[in-house]
Design brief:
Length: about 220
Amino acid sequence: MAKIVIFGASGYAGGHIAKELVSRGFDVTGVARRADAIPGEVESAVGSIHDEQFVREVVDGASNVVVALPASPTEEGGPALVDALPLLEEVSRTRRARLGFVGGAGSLAVAHGGPRVMDTAEFPEAFKAEAHAHAVLLEALRASEDDVDWFSLSPAGGFGSWNAGERTGEYRVGRDILIADESGKSNISGADFAIAFANEIERREHARTRFTVGY
């Protein structure tokens, strides 16, 4: 089975994606700062997406590279995720590896013709820097050359470890508008988000675009 490398495998989204891909028989390598934080069923690699030599080594032979990392700098004065994009684009071109990003919900529109979620008065100030960094990364991906194979999957608004939810195997798919139910709630469980992500890796239905999932 194909090799898949996941940067951020110790995180909420990355961990769920890693477990889902392993359950489907993929050869998964999880990258994180600490090996003990990576799910036990996943081969671990310790390193940084901003370490050029490490990235070239760890993605060798991979058909897919998953990026499930914060988009904003993790330390003051440090690099943002978008700073790693030129190297990832090169990997996509030269290694024929598809790039899959865990995006943010903040850059989604609240409705057709409406503002972005992060531009509404209700959006928490504490999350604005991360939402903006995800939006910058998305625009950089959209501006990339046609030979860079990528997709970005934005979760619903209520996605996170504090709202883990259950595995249902069901979800709705959208493009650039936040998915919400009839009561206005926007949710997706960690397990169902991982199912959607793994399905995209297997089915390749969204080429060079961002899409979103929710209930």
